[in-house]
Amino acid sequence: MSTELEQFYEVFFEESSELLAEMEACLLGLDLSSPDPEDLNAIFRAAHSIKGGAGTFGFTDMTEMTHMLESLLDKLRKGEIEIRSEMIDTFLRAGDIIKGQLAAHRGDGAADEAAAAEVSNELKQFSEETTEALNIDKESTSSTTEQPDHKPNEAKNVVVESLPATSKTEQVSFNIEFSSSGINSKSLENLFSNLSDLGKFEKLLVSDKEQNCKLRLTTYTCEENIWEALAFVVNPSQLKIEKASQTEAHTSTKLDVSSSIQIDEITSDKPSKTAVETENSACEPYGFFSGAPAAPIETEKKVKTESHSDPSVEQNILEEKSFPTDTINSLPIQKQSKPNAPTTETTSIRVSIEKVDQMINLVGELVITQAMLAQTASEVDPVIYEKLNNGMNQLERNTRNLQEAVMSIRMLPISFVFSRYPRVVHDLASKLDKKVELKTVGEGTELDKGLIEKIADPLTHLVRNSLDHGIELPEKRIATGKVAKGTITLRAFHQGGSIVIEVGDDGAGLNREKIMAKATERGISIHEGMSDQEVWMLIFEPGFSTAEKVTDVSGRGVGMDVVKRNIKDMGGRIEIDSVQGVGTRITIRLPLTLAILDGLSVAVGDQMFIVPLTYITESLQIKNTDIKTVNGVGRVVHVRGDYLPVIALHEIFNIKPNATRIEDGILIILDAEGHKAAMFVDALIGQHQVVIKSLENNYRRVMGVSGATIMGDGKVALILDTTGLVMASHKDSL
Amino acid sequence: MSLQQTVTSIDSVSSAANQVLNEFLTFRLGNEEYGIDILKVQEIRGYDAITQIANSPEFIKGVVNLRGIIVPIIDMRIKFKLGVAEYDQFTVVIILNVSGRVMGIVVDGVSDVINLDIDQVRATPDFGSVIDTKYIMGLGTADERMLILVDIEKLMTSEDMGLVDQTLN
Questions:
Q1: Model pLDDT, residue A194
Q2: pLDDT digits (tens, 9 = 90+) for B47-82
Q3: Set A320, A465, A469, A688: catalytic member
Q4: What's the distance, Cα to Cα, between the start and end of chain A in Å?
Q5: CA dist A201 → A198, A251, A368, B59 (Å)
Q6: Cβ atoms B24, B140 nearer than 8 A
Q7: Interface test with B, best of A652, A656, A699 (most B CBs within 10 A)
Q8: To the nearest whole angstrom, how far is the Cα of A619 from the nearest Cα of chain B?
Q9: How far is residue B11 from each of residues A255, A277, B5, B18, B121, measured CA to CA in Å?
Q10: Who wins on pLDDT, A355 or A261?
């Protein structure tokens, strides 16, 4: 089994991680005073799906832990226990344990067994608090039977260790009659042993003379399974399976599992319904999910058989996962607390990022080729080649759409990052005895996957910082006339060609004097005339912390400088707004994607350069009189009341320009990080979407150039490092 | 190749093992002939539209688009101080793949590919030339020709080529 199932491991691991994340999100979103049954159901389903998967792969430690979770959740769901906040904490810790176990099975570290035992004890305590009277755990059988290893004994032992194992499913007796003519004794023996695997099995009559067999099987399994077991050997036309009368069933149940009738009475308020239910759900034993062995057996078979022929691994596992949910849905509606679970069909596939990147590259090539064709086609007579022109137009539209579609594959909503912070805030707030609410706005804002991965760490740091330094203790908040509960707001939105992510809090705000004092102490040169903005930026200096005491949360002064560096590496920038006593807001601006850029192509001499459009405010031609010199060297132009330094591209790049005098060429006004400059070029050519290619892959960094791209004619054009150029011009002229 | 055979027959007397050192791609630069390890060569193409890169050394002609990859082009004649290169229809670019990087070198023309035995290679005399001898593996003799065997990988990744950010490595 292991060899066949190994290929599903990875899918299981990923699925489980997702389910855990989902579970965590639901737990944190749970309203303790009136928990939404849908949420509880969702948590339950997540735990159950993980358990099912873990069982299939034989990860018993995970099965146990999820099982405990499930038992408690089930009681919560049915209202047998009131949910309390300690439970949430324990659940969260259990989630962490499962995560650890998952990692361990992945071959990534070892699971913390001691912690696991501790958490499972806690869970047990919670669930025992109200179940002492019942002293029955309803799930144990299901977990036992769900072990698909066909080693029920071993599986049972595992559970028995941790739980009193009793049954919640009802046993049913079947009378089986068939003719054994044409069946050799060996297959008959096999059949008998198979049947005895299913339940308690008695041979009532094995007659060789009349060749009739009468058997009685008392089992948890439904009729269908018995049919299946028999159908391989016995001619179905000669097979008769009858359910033994209800009383018999109950008698045998009583004999076998003394508690099962008790359960009947407890779980269904109207015992009269029991008969109906048993008949209706011959296949479905009591319970909320596939407690019957039928489910896992079928599921496993599916996996096994399909794994040979069907390469769509994903599909198999998804089917497997969704199976229990389906079972729940197909259950006759007998109990109020039964989840009318929405079967969430997963309509996504997992594709490796390399494949996507390869696709993006290919589409980039296609766009270039299309542009080349378009250029050639534009040279022919449009009247004669009308069809060609029409085709070219269509091609252009299609390639552009294709490019957009492909680029959007890499785009992910920022909720992928935001979703981890409720937990961070929850844990940290309880640790610091603060009351904090986390608000997220604009989770649907999409950005490049590469950025998503890189932004997570800096954001975590900012959130922790806000919580630790920003939000005050509840008493202090009340004393200053604020509500006791602080608010941290995470907001994301698009602005122009960039994505803006804000981390805001309504805490104490930054303290100018304190920062200034600290800066002096650390020997950072400051002066009283510094703007607030400049002062706030000091906190990004390495080793800068105004925290009075160093905690394990923050205050060591490492971090903020790392945050700033990370953001800068991503091509973004960071700003702080703060009002003392009101709050702080840290704004991060990032480029939307790392791969594509809107640019204006400009010509200098015979060379072409791309200027990123996001930095351009305007372009204009000016009169000679607007050009001034400073000290006879630095040139500035007078534009709309501002004196802007001139960046002469031909001088920087040593190119012989067509226009040597500024008034002959064109000035592009650039705005980078609040600094303005005028770039002098020969002419503007056009606006393009360009695919950014790295120069550094095969060459190295070039001053003033951030990358390169391939133009429609197949030539390479350099993309200007606008920020670098503007900054350099300010250094030169000031 | 008849030339090759002659060489081998002459040398077979002295070399018992007849060890093949490597295959070399030979190219001309002015009057000199050079050889580089053929395994480092990715392809050979014509010399076409090059985009200059500002403030780069003179021998770096610029970058070209090689099927979507930006590839720097180095003029070996300028690098080896063999006079000013004139570009004509025989000028070719040898695209190299060295230490995971793709780059092109402009040469006057590609001659052929030859096998060299270990004893066809002589040590480089130390003559303090403009080319640091540490990038020359040896002098190969094939027939009447003398081949300057260049360790192209070492040369291309060296600091004085300025092709690779040394800080990155």
A1: 67
A2: 877 888 877 788 888 888 887 788 889 888 888 777
A3: A465
A4: 74
A5: 8, 15, 73, 90
A6: yes
A7: A699
A8: 24
A9: 98, 97, 10, 8, 11
A10: A355
Looking up tokens 């009075």 gives A548
Tell me the CATH class for A2-162+290-330. mainly alpha
| Residue of A690, A700, A721 to mutate, testing the B interface (most B Cβ within 10 Å of its Cβ) | A700
Instruction: Reduce the DSSP state of residue A671 to 3 states and report it.
Output: strand
A574, B3, B120, B122, B152 from B21: Cα distances, Å: 58, 17, 9, 12, 16
DSSP state of A548: S
Where in chain A are all domains bearing CATH 1.20.120.160? Answer: 2-162+290-330
Is A172-256 assigned to CATH 3.30.70.1110? yes
Q: Give the chain B residue whose CA is nearest to the CA of A365.
A: B68
Model-level pTM?
Answer: 0.45
**CA A483, CA A391: separation in Å to the nearest integer?**
65
In total, chain A counts a number of residues equal to 734
Strands A436-441 vs A486-495: parallel, antiparallel or unpaired: parallel
Which residue reads 């002066």 in tokens? A527
CATH architecture of A413-591: 2-Layer Sandwich (3.30)
Which chain A residue is nearest to residue B72, measuring alpha carbons? A699
- As a dihedral over the C-alpha atoms of residue A35, residue A342, residue A124, residue A145, rounded to 10 degrees, the angle is 160
What whole-number percentage of chain B has pLDDT above 70?
A: 78
Contact B135, B151 (CB under 8 A): yes
* Residue A626 pLDDT level (bands cut at 50, 70, 90): confident
The CATH number for B146's domain is: 2.40.50.180
The verdict on A555 touching B (C-beta cutoff 8 Å) is no
A469 — phi, psi (to 5°)?
A: -95, -35
Strands, DSSP E only, in A442-529? 446-448, 486-495, 498-505
State pLDDT tens for residues A668-682.
Answer: 888 876 678 888 888
For residues A734 and A731, give the distance between their C-alpha atoms in angstroms, rounded to a whole number: 6
Q: Which residues share a beta bridge with A630?
A: A634
